[in-house]
Every structure is written in structure tokens, then in C-alpha cells.
Specification:
619 residues, mainly alpha, Arc Repressor Mutant, subunit A, three-stranded antiparallel sheet, 25 helices
């Protein structure tokens, strides 16, 4: 297919699970419509015209901004990033060829119109730009005769030569005069096995400040750590490390809009380097942003191949295994972590997870060893004691330990522990059926989450309160809590909580709700999508469609899936309706196992409370 400089009319392409429809100016990803900017759509059309061919940056910029418009390289990086984001699980088909450009690695079909047959798109006979490094996935295709430079590039040539000379001089000055000589063995962060040379720093204070940021984060003061990394990013123009970790922390905090901003900056700086570890670290962070468990496991594994001592990555892998329902594999991964003296907050959390996964005795043994050393009288160890008691289902003792942790953590300004313990105490009150106390505790925890910028937890606790307010008959407060949770989730693109917001809205809200549109950059499990369809049909009174979607959800859901209680609740509601109409569906007969570890969404507990009420009132 010939490549044109403009965009022809009514082109429709399909690759992987994606349909690019120029006529409708939209995408379909895995059968569902997705929002997409015009620039990203145009870029995807260009890629679809030439699958398998590396498109140089100059060519792409000429086609995206025709007529000799002057735009920065960052604009192209942003367009590629946006295109990948909207592709979600299929983002990996757009491959970066270091030093050359980008390529679409996929079989592309041009869809026929008005009865025309579909046509497999063949790569154009254009030449491959020469690459200066290695790409992220496959080897560069064999080279061909050089492509003549574009007119725009020829006009820029004198300026580029002058710029190149200036850059070479600056590099010489930095290498021999300015750049601090850092010891190759200097460790910046043990958890990621990050060393001084990994920073590619040009300022004398960069290594010290980044190391201090990681230390602060390990102590639980992520706000201060974030401020330090932002300072380093602004003062050192070469190191991509601050942007990478600011993006990673933003994903962890549920602020995906901020994560996207930092990922673009990290990509710009990493593209200028030739560093396998930073490439792998960026790819891992991008996988975390997309929320694809298998991709995250693979990327974290690749990093561990490069840095086997990076225990933070083992913890990340264990969390993903747990999320995917592989509890034994998660426990085995945690068994390889060296917990030391639990100086880092994530080591404490990981040891608590070990108790959650069935080794409460092993966790208690580590705790006893710390007691013997006189190191166990701290708020973080109070938290650990509470988690071990939770895993042993001794909720009274867990309540005491978490309250003590909250009180002492507040005195020591350990607000990470204060927030988590306050939420856990509120969760225990829900488990015990003490709903007025739960409301009081969760309102306090919610205020802490808001102050700390923990967006995912803010949404989670807001949903819990919406259900508890509804139990108490306070409909206005319930609707307000729902509206606040929805606003936070939408504003910050909290991808892992959007479906929970939707489920709670469908159950508790009396407002007109728009039709559901799946986020393009989020992988939503099939069972959860079917449950959302079933709940929406039930809300509008279409019991036949609700039953069919419910049965689909039931087939695609396991007992370990976090939405099992919401699915069971709908099953009981349909069962009651069936008794009246003579069309009962199968409904689960018991609630799922205890929620352990107690991580978001804790709204599972209020869903379970609603389920228990439904079971008690069913005939």
C-alpha cells in the first residue's frame, strides 16, 4: 500500500484486538469503543499503513505536523505515549527502535467497505532508518538503501550540524570538568539495587539527594521523598531516575494522570541513553501503569535477571501473584525476601503479607527475634502485630494493635501508618457489624487519605461510607459519598477502582447514569465486565438480560476474585426476583473467605455486609 503524506478518507484497519476507524474518528479495543485524540488516531493510521516498518522520527513529525511546522521532539514522544495508552493491553505492538524511530509489530488488515473484501496490509518498500542501539523487543529488520532525507530535514541540516558541535563540546566539558566521579559500587537504593552509575547524573548532589529520597520513602514520608525527586529532576537535566520513580509512585497512589505526565518525561530522558537497566525499569513502570498482571510479572522478572538482589521487585511480583489468585506462588516469592531488621516500611508490609499467606508463625518468629534485639517497640511493629492478629482472625487484638499504631504513628508523624491503621480499624468494625463506629473510624481515615493524596484509598473508603450511610438510612450522605468517590476516580484516572465506583453507583445511586464506557488503558477482567453488564440490566428492570449476563459472570469468576461478593449479592437479588417470576437463578450459599491481606478494595467488606443482609432476608 502506498504511503501518502495526508490522511485518506474512511480508512478502517484491524490489528490484534484493535479497530482503527478514521470515518468514525474512534477506536475499538477488544470490541469496545474508546476515546482517542485526533493526533493519536492519525499516528495509528500512519502505523497501520506500514506495519513492520520502522518509521523515523523525522518522517512521523513531517506527517503529523505537515507544512514545516516547528514542533519539539517531545510532541512526538507524547503522541506515541497517548497512542500506547489508548491501546491498553495491546500497547506493546508499538515498539521503540532506539536511535531510529518506532514500528508497529502486528499483522494489519484493511477492512473493506460497501461489500469490498478485507485486505492484508503489506509493509511498504520504504527503507529502514539506521538504528544506533537495540530495540525493546525484536532485532532491527535488515537494512536497505538509504532513504533520501525529507525537505524539512535538509533545511534543518546547517542548524543541526551547529547544534551537534555545541553538544559535543558540552559533553566534553561535563565529562572532564563538571560530572561528579561516582564510585561504581555506591548503592543508592538497596530495594531496587540502584547504584550511582545508573543515575547518569551531571550534578554533584544528585546521588545524595536521590538516596535521601529513597530513605524518606522507606520511612513512610513519601510526600517529602516526592519533593526531593522533583527537585532533582529540575536541577539535573540528564538523569531519568526521578521521573521513573515519580511515575511509579503515582501509579501506586492511584494518580494515573500524574503518572502519565512523569512517564513522558522519563521516556524523553531514557531515549537519550543506552542503559539496559533503565530501559527495563521504565518498561516495568509502564506495565504497572497499564495494570496488566502478566506483563508486570514479566517486566519485574527481567529486572530481577539484571539485579537479583532487588527485593522490592520480589514484593511487587508477590502482590501481582496474589492479585491473580496464585497465593502459593506469592508466598514462595516472599520467602526469597531478606527482611533484615524491618527498617523499610515495605519490608514490614511484606512480612505481614507472609502471615496473610499462611505463615503467621514464621512472621511471629521474625517478630520475636526483633523483640530479643530490642527493636520491636515502634509503630511499624505495632502495625505488623495487628496484621498477624488479623490473619489469625483475632480481630479484638488486631483492633488494639492498630489503634496503638495509629496513636504512636501520629506522634511520630508516620502518616502512612496512621492512615493504614485507621482504615483497618474501620474495616474491623464493619466485620463486627458495628456500623456507627465504622462510620466514625472510616471518616477519620478518609480525611487522612485525602491529606496524604492516596487517591485509590480515598475512593475505596468513600464507597464503604456510601454503603454504611445507606444502611443507616442517610440517603443524602450516601449519594454525596458516591459523588465524591466518582469525582476523585475520574479526575485522577484511578483505573483499579473505576469498576467499583460503577458497581456501587448502580446499586445505591438514584441519579441517571450514562452508559458504561470501559477505560481504554485498563485491562478489565471478563467476569467483572459481565457483572457490570448484569448489574446495569438489573437496574433498568431487564431481568432476562441481567440473568444472562450474571451467568456469564459466574462462569468467568473464581472464589479468589475480589468482586465475588458483589456477584453473589446480585445472585441473591435475582434469586428473589425469580421466586416471584418462576425463573430463579443459581445463587451462592455462603460468603467468600476472609479478606486477607486487608488491601484495597476494602469496599469488598461493605459489599459482603450487603450480601449478608440479602441472605438473611431471602425466603
Amino acid at each position: 500500500m502506498a504511503v501518502s503524506s495526508g490522511v485518506s478518507a474512511a480508512r478502517r484497519y484491524r490489528f490484534a484486538g484493535v479497530v482503527v476507524d478514521e470515518g468514525a474518528t474512534r477506536l475499538e479495543v477488544d470490541g469496545r469503543p474508546c476515546r482517542c485524540s485526533q493526533r493519536a488516531l492519525h499516528l495509528l493510521l500512519i502505523f497501520c499503513e506500514s506495519p513492520g516498518r520502522t518509521l523515523g522520527r523525522a518522517e512521523l513529525m513531517d506527517r503529523l505536523w505537515p507544512g514545516g511546522q516547528l514542533v519539539a521532539d517531545e510532541a512526538l514522544t507524547q503522541a506515541v505515549f497517548r497512542a500506547r495508552a489508548v491501546l491498553g493491553a495491546h500497547a506493546g505492538h508499538i515498539v521503540t527502535i532506539r536511535g531510529a524511530g518506532f514500528r508497529l509489530d502486528a499483522d494489519v488488515v484493511r477492512l473493506g467497505v460497501d461489500g469490498d473484501a478485507d485486505e492484508v496490509v503489506q509493509p511498504s518498500a520504504y527503507d529502514e532508518p539506521a538504528a544506533t542501539g537495540t530495540e525493546h523487543v525484536d532485532p532491527v529488520l535488515p537494512s536497505k538503501p538509504a532513504e533520501p532525507p525529507s525537505g524539512r530535514m535538509m533545511r534543518r541540516l546547517p542548524y543541526l550540524l551547529a547544534l551537534l558541535a555545541a553538544l559535543l563540546l558540552a559533553a566534553f566539558v561535563y565529562r572532564w570538568v563538571v560530572t561528579p566521579q561516582l564510585a561504581p559500587t555506591e548503592i543508592i537504593d538497596v530495594g531496587y539495587a540502584l547504584t550511582a552509575p545508573d543515575l547518569h547524573a551531571t550534578q554533584a548532589d544528585t546521588a545524595r539527594l536521590i538516596a535521601d529520597a529513597f530513605r524518606r520513602e522507606g520511612e513512610g514520608d513519601r510526600a517529602r521523598a516526592r519533593a526531593l525527586l522533583e527537585t532533582v529532576y529540575a536541577s539535573d537535566a540528564t538523569t531519568p531516575v526521578p521521573a521513573i520513580f515519580l511515575a511509579l509512585w503515582a501509579v501506586g497512589g492511584g494518580n494515573n494522570a500524574e503518572a502519565d505526565r512523569w512517564l513522558m518525561q522519563a521516556q524523553l530522558r531514557t531515549d537519550r541513553l543506552d542503559d539496559a537497566y533503565l530501559d527495563a525499569l521504565l518498561a516495568y513502570t509502564e506495565a504497572e501503569r497499564r495494570g496488566q498482571p502478566q506483563d508486570i510479572l514479566r517486566r519485574a522478572g527481567a529486572l530481577l535477571d539484571l539485579r537479583p538482589d532487588a527485593w522490592q521487585l520480589r514484593i511487587a511480583r508477590s502482590h501481582l501473584m496474589l492479585y491473580s489468585g496464585y497465593r502459593d506462588a506469592a508466598a514462595a516469592e516472599l520467602a526469597r525476601v531478606d527482611f533484615g531488621d524491618l527498617q523499610h516500611r515495605k519490608q514490614v508490609m511484606a512480612l505481614a503479607d507472609r502471615a496473610s499467606l499462611g505463615d503467621a508463625d514464621g512472621a511471629a518468629a521474625v517478630l520475636a527475634d526483633l523483640d530479643a534485639k530490642g527493636l520491636a517497640d515502634t509503630p511499624r511493629i505495632d502495625y505488623l502485630r495487628g496484621r498477624i492478629a488479623w490473619s489469625q482472625k483475632d480481630y479484638a487484638r488486631a483492633d488494639q494493635d492498630f489503634l496503638r499504631c495509629e496513636e504512636r504513628g501520629r506522634r511520630e508523624a508516620r502518616f502512612d501508618l496512621v492512615n493504614r491503621c485507621a482504615a483497618n480499624v474501620g474495616a474491623i468494625a464493619v466485620v463486627d457489624g458495628e456500623y456507627p463506629r465504622a462510620i466514625e473510624l472510616l471518616e477519620r481515615a478518609l480525611a487522612g487519605m485525602q491529606d496524604s493524596g492516596w487517591r485509590r484509598d480515598e475512593v475505596d473508603l468513600g464507597l464503604m461510607l456510601a454503603q454504611l450511610y445507606a444502611f443507616s438510612g442517610n440517603t443524602d450522605a450516601s449519594h454525596q459519598a458516591l459523588a465524591s468517590a466518582q469525582a476523585v476516580a475520574g479526575r485522577n484516572e484511578v483505573d483499579s477502582m473505576w469498576a467499583w465506583v460503577r458497581l456501587y453507583e448502580l446499586r445505591l445511586s438514584d441519579a441517571d447514569l450514562p452508559d458504561m464506557s470501559l477505560p481504554a488503558n485498563v485491562v478489565t477482567p471478563t467476569g467483572l465486565v459481565a457483572l457490570l453488564d448484569a448489574r446495569a440490566a438489573y437496574r433498568r428492570g431487564d431481568l432476562g438480560a441481567a440473568r444472562q449476563a450474571y451467568e456469564r459472570a459466574l462462569r468467568a469468576t473464581s472464589e479468589s476474585d475480589e468482586w465475588i461478593d458483589e456477584l453473589s449479592l446480585l445472585g441473591w437479588e435475582l434469586h428473589r426476583k425469580g421466586d416471584d417470576a418462576g425463573q430463579a437463578v443459581d445463587a451462592p450459599t455462603s460468603v467468600s473467605e476472609v479478606i486477607d491481606p486487608p488491601y484495597p478494595p476494602l469496599a469488598r467488606l461493605t459489599s459482603r455486609a450487603a450480601l449478608q443482609r440479602a441472605m438473611e432476608t431471602s425466603p
